[in-house]
Amino acid sequence: MRNTIASMLVALLLLGAALPLLVLDASGTRWEQTSADDFDDGESFFVETSGGTLKLSRGLTGTWSAVGEATTDRFGFSVASAGDVNGDGYADVVVSAYDNNGGGGDAGEAYVYHGSASGLSATPDWSDQGEATNDYFGWSVASAGDVNGDGYADVIVGARYNDGAATDAGEVYVYHGSSSGLSATPDWSDQGEAAGDHFSYHLASAGDVNGDGYADVIVGAIKNDGAGTDAGEAYV
Q1: Per residue in 36-91, pLDDT tens?
Q2: How far is Cα 219 from Cα 236, in angstroms, rounded to an integer?
Q3: Under a CB-based contact definition with an 8 Å cutoff, are residues 55 and 48 in contact?
């Protein structure tokens, strides 16, 4: 446990406090991060424990990898555990490409890869795209926990530049898990309060804050002006 905590702390220092982009590997001894934005060459950096010694290594040396569909997709900008979205007993992962153009220029896309006895699937088992050009869908991704109490993990995805409520107000989406995986379309969404809020810039599972047996989520709007210009606001 001490080694794992130490690995995380060193990773924070070495990787520029990029905790939302770190994933603990199956052995529980290595934290991984891949981001073309943080590292211009898009390589992976690993902080791992070996015989009680911390070691920083570089390069795609893991047992699984995936790449973006096209130039400048920014695939891997945000990555997280998705929990077990299909209830097969294996953890899944969610990966974003906020600059993907499949739904329009920079609409963005998010992908989920299912786990199995042999590891993660080679191709995405689920994906969805932003609603409009320049949404940056997938700027933030995370497990939402089990928000509806059906026994399957759910996933939350943010689109910080979505204009549904107003220009760059932002929007957040939750997809429910099931025996077949995530739903094809969002089961819930919410939007920023005003133009330029960038609602969903950061997001995460909040656990069960009111003890009702359902997981809750927390979402940030870093440029909300409610308490002053760009004061920001967080919502549960």
Answers
A1: 444 443 444 444 445 555 444 444 455 788 999 999 999 999 999 999 999 999 99
A2: 6
A3: yes
List of residues 6+ apart from 147 with CB closer than 8 A: 154, 174, 176, 188, 214, 215, 216, 217
Q: What is the pTM of this model?
A: 0.77
Which residues does 165 contact at the CB level (< 8 Å), separation at least 6? 171, 191, 192, 193, 194
- Domain-by-domain residue ranges, the chain? 75-235
Superfamily of domain 75-235: Integrin alpha, N-terminal (2.130.10.130)
| H helix and E strand count, the chain | 1, 15
Q: Is 93 exposed, middle or buried (0-12, 13-18, 19+ CB in 10 A)?
A: buried
What are the pLDDT digits (tens) for 177-227?
Answer: 999 999 999 999 999 999 999 999 999 999 999 999 999 999 999 999 999
List, in sequence order, the alpha helices (H) in 152-225: none
**Contacting residues for 31 by C-beta, under 8 A, at least 6 apart:** 7, 8, 11, 22, 23, 24, 25, 46, 47, 48
